[in-house]
Amino acid sequence: MENLIALLIAAPLLGAVVLLLGGRRLDAVGHWVGTLLSTASFVVGLVLFAGLLGKDAEHRTWTQHLWSWIPVGDFQADVTLRLDQLSMTFVLLITGVGSLIHLYSIGYMEHDERRRRFFGYLNLFLAAMLLLVLADNYLLLYVGWEGVGLASYLLIGFWQHKPSAATAAKKAFLVNRVGDVGLSIAIMLMFTTFGTFAFGPVLEHAGDASEGRLTAIGLMLLLAACGKSAQVPLQSWLGDAMEGPTPVSALIHAATMVTAGVYLIVRSAAIFNGAPDAQLVVTVVGGVTLLFGAIVGCAKDDIKKALAGSTMSQIGYMVLAAGLGPIGYVFAIMHLVTHGFFKAGLFLGAGSVMHGMNDEVDMRKYGGLRKYMPITFVTFGLGYLAIIGFPGLSGFFSKDKIIEAAFAKGGAEGWILGGVALLGAAITAFYMTRVMLMTFFGEPRWKNQPTKSPEAPSAEPAAEHQGAHGEPHPHESPRTMTIPMIVLAVGSVAGGAFFDVGDRFLHWLEPVTGHSEGHSPLSALTVTGATMVCLVLGVGLAWAQYGRKPVPAHAPRGSVLTRAARRDLYQDDFNHVVLVRGGEHLTRSLVYVDHTLVDGVVNGSAAGFGGLSGRLRRVQNGFARSYAVSMFGGAALLVAATLLMRAV
Amino acid sequence: MNPVNYLYLAALLFTIGATGVLIRRNAIVVFMCVELMLNACNLAFVTFSRMHGNLDGQIIAFFTMVVAAAEVVVGLAIIVSLFRTRHSASVDDASLMKL
Amino acid sequence: MSTQLAAYSTSTGEAVQFWILGSVAVIGALCTVLMRRAVHSALCLAGTMIVLAVFYLANGAYFLGVVQIVVYTGAIMMLFLFVVMLVGVTAADSLKETIRGQRWLALLCGLGFGVLLLGGIAHASLTQFNGTGQANAGGNVEGLATLIFTKYVFAFELTGALLITAAIGAMVLTHRERTERAKTQRELAAERVREGKHVPPLPAPGVYARHNAVDIAGLLPDGTPAELSVSRTLRERGQIRDVSAQALGDLKALEQRAEERLERTENTPATFKRTEDAAQ
Fold first, then answer.
1. 3-state DSSP of A260-310
2. Could you report the predicted ipTM of this complex, rounded to two decimals?
3. Considering only CB atoms, which chain B residues are within 8 Å of A631?
4. Could you say which of 3.40.50.150, 1.20.120.1200, 1.10.3720.10, 3.40.50.300 is the CATH number of the domain covering C12-90?
5. In chain C, what are the domain boundaries?
6. pLDDT digits (tens, 9 = 90+) for C1-19
7. Which residue windows are transmembrane per the record (chain C) (predicted)?
8. How many domains does chain B have?
């Protein structure tokens, strides 16, 4: 049974190799090959899952040793895969949602002539992501970590003919590198501290190391998580990453890759448990990102960017929960899974809307679409209800647990974190309602105005539905696109309840992450009530602003906060001023130092020697007799020296 | 008389020859001074041979003569070809190796 | 001087010989350095070498003494003289120093080196010697031959190779490959006419019967020497004897004598009256 683990990775990897090296002759079947192999991986995952369920909770960790990778003295890096409850959860999420999105992409990318390459990249991403979650040591995890970074880069920049896409891909890649430095330093620290970086020994002996060491490792891991999961201060790339095709946004930048940071923190639970300071920083980062993403999401008129802000915010919830320690790990993962369902569903819905609207992304040019695309409306609506935490749907269970856990942290810390989480819930309700109302309700604002024409019609989906520069004709998407949306909507609705009833998810994951009940100052019912109040407040506010009165087709100037949020709370300006300018100044001063000091010393000594040689060369007058004199003088000196030595 | 006197004479001749090399400009005369130095050495070797009571010194002097003969042949050939091209036998005229 | 005597002691005769011939050798060496003409230097050097040959004989090196005279003085010095003649016998060097400080530096170095060398020999204080009697017992030439063909055979073979190399080297250095066909007389004449310079034959050297040597330039009508009349080699060596001043002096004296013979006085033209003036 263990031997099947490698198959999980092998299937999509094979797909990537075949599709990327296969050339144009695979253009006709490439998308089906990709989807089939992704589904195969999902099936293998299900088989393994069944196998795991058949074991006791204590024996649910399987490892498969493939080969010795770098055996150098004490430095042993093996390619070993590890499947336990945590990995299994991720495997099912990645392969399941991944397969659905493969299916969706068949329709979405139908008119893109580079569709085969797109599926190759998607398969490459799946393989890397599976390697990331299945690795048995941090070094192998790092390989997967870089692999998903590469796949993300390739997919964000898939429409590389658009300068904005190419720039966004580059930005994502560079910002991710900052986080990767953190991960590599963390691995080095682990090696110097524990002498190994396999999960087993490291996590087992984490308690033996000094707290300072653990804090350092924890903070470096957090830096890595911030880069991959778009947490403050490395959040700036996620909004721009929406330049990629929508299925990519759904799979990589909502459901799976961006949650790798949460996986890393939960996987390294033993390290964080020994470093309270690092945990505090994790919760602070989570809380700040939660509000940051939510505020940004409120102001964006671009439907994908609004959802991106939402993603950032929801991952903030997960990081916050992961920072809470054993009381939050399980809920972080649970929210991660439910979020994977409903956020993927929402993104696919957004993609479907764009598909029907000639790739228009500005919500101010939508309106009243519920009549034209009913399936999209229903699935998107269910996802919407799930994310705002409508009672009974999945978001309600997972998010509620996190808020409870935040309060259960205890002390002022708990009150602050709980308050932030509650506020976040209210803002979530507001911006999601805003998206919903602007897109599907109200008057159609797309009539009588031409939409932007795609820059390269052949590369964009649904190009033929556009009358030449005419108004769009909203329509429902093909079945390959609606089926995944329906499946994900079902997951969004039922997932939370399925996990939560009887604490199924808790018992499943507890052996890996550990769990402890906090002592909440508020009862669970109070927290739920408060959450409901926040929910109603948020929805009501959004209704008052966007439901009762028509939405202006052009964005009003808005308040200071709105304008700031539209510019992503000046994150890019901050980066520009602090990092770019700072770097430029540093470089300039270094160049100055180089020119004056270093070059000065070098040129000065060179000039000194040059002058000296200029004087010395006068001795070289070219007359052989002059040279002979010095030779003869030297011989005389030698005789003198010899005699002197003999005399002494 | 002590045969060391021969050594003194050799030293004197050698020094005169060396100074001549340094002072004279005519390449042929310079060359003759070199020969004088070689001869002074030969005298010293022969004297050493007598003082040590074996013939090795004389052998060395003999080899010196052979090498000197070879040297003279090549050296004079160089002087002749130099004179042919530069119409001068002065060693100072060949002073191009300077800046 | 007998072999036995040379072996164990030095006779008074040898001492006298040393002091006399040693002085000659030093004087010869100094003259070699100081003579202005290369040919004189060569002759002085030859003298010094003969003295050295005598000293070799006195030291029991009979073979070397003979070789010194035959090979060194006889062959090598003659080679020097040949080259001196090739380069120009009479060209006297200017002894004026052209490099600043060279002479003083050279003298200083020479003095210091000589003093150190002499001091070193004196310091060694060699008072005893073995003499070559034992070594020369079987004959000097036989002893040398034994050593050369046994102990020093490789060095000897190498010197053979060296001599051959030197001979070939000298040939290579002095040999000039003719890269084009030599011009015939007709071609040379045609070339001269084409250039338009010296179409007639070059002027002959020498003036009057007294000065018809090849190194004396012929005189032009105005009494100045015609350089073209002297061979190019002599011209390049600067070995033209200029007799123009003497010739002009001779000419003047001849004219004066002729005038005296003809009793011509250098009278001022007489003032005479013209007929028409007389008529007045």
1. HHHHHHHHCHHHHHCCHHHHHHHHHHHHHHHHHHHHHHHHCCEHHHHHHHH
2. 0.92
3. none
4. 1.20.120.1200
5. 12-90, 203-261
6. 444 444 445 778 888 999 9
7. 16-35, 42-63, 69-92, 104-126, 152-173
8. 1
